[in-house]
Request: fold
Amino acid sequence: MKISVIITLKQDVLDPQGKVINQTLTGMGFDNIDEVRQGKYFEINVNEQDENKARAQVEEMCKKLLTNLVIENYKIL
Reply:
C-alpha cells in the first residue's frame, strides 16, 4: 500500500530555502508571489493490506524519524 506524506516547516519557523526560491522567482518575472514555503514529500510503500495499520505505521515513522516535531508539521495523505 502506497502512502504519501507531506512535511512542511511550521508557519512561525523561518524558511530560508523558501525565501531564496521566492526571490529567484521574483527575479524571473513572477512578481505576484507573496511567499514560498518549501517542504518534503515522501511516498512510502508499506507491505500491509489493512489501511489503518499501514497509516499507523507511517504515523510512527513520521514521529520517530521523518519529521522534526519541534519545527515541522506532517500530513499523511
Q: What stands out?
A: The domain at 2-76 is CATH 3.30.1280.10 (Mth169; Chain: A ,). The chain has a mean pLDDT of 97. The first strand starts at residue 2 and ends at 9.
